[in-house]
Amino acid sequence: MRPYRILPLLLLAGLAPPAHAEIYKCTDAAGRVTYTNDRSLARGCVRLQSDQPVSSVPAPVRRPAAAATRETPQSADFPRVSPNEQRGRDDARRQVLQEEMRTEEQKLAEAEKALAEQESIRLGDERNYQKVLDRVQPFKDRVELHKRNVEALRREISGLR
């Protein structure tokens, strides 16, 4: 009985036509060569023989070494800042980050308070505990967001000189 199940599959596999596509080689005005199988894009292109291998991976673009060095800023081109001015900028940045930290810590405290309030109450239609979890989840998400913000600000402040 087992060969009778496999026989139809073998017949269907043998009847499937092989994949076939016409490949065209196109050269633009700048001399760049591209390959396509789209007949609408293949105007003025040469159809390749089906037995030729075609690679669809383009060659990497090589840049001259002189052009690569010009792209990086040179020390003479880079603007200089005096140490006192840089110290002033760092102090101003630290003050801004500390103010953001105070604001974010206040928002975290408010979010934790709201979460505690929501966890302490139980509405009448929440007989199923999943309903409680669904109602409280946005409050938990808000607390986590503010915790991540506080941690990011702490890392940023600790990285200052």
Automatic annotation (TrEMBL):
Short name of one Pfam family: DUF4124
Taxonomic lineage from the root: Bacteria, Pseudomonadati, Pseudomonadota, Betaproteobacteria, Rhodocyclales
Biased composition (Basic and acidic residues): 86-110
InterPro entries hit by this protein: DUF4124 (IPR025392)
Domain of life of the organism encoding this protein: Bacteria
Domain DUF4124 intervals: 10-68
Name of this protein: DUF4124 domain-containing protein
The keyword Signal is annotated on this UniProt entry: yes
N-terminal signal peptide: 1-21
Species name: Thauera phenylacetica B4P
Low complexity bias spans: 53-68
Disordered: annotated segments: 52-110
Keywords of the record: Signal
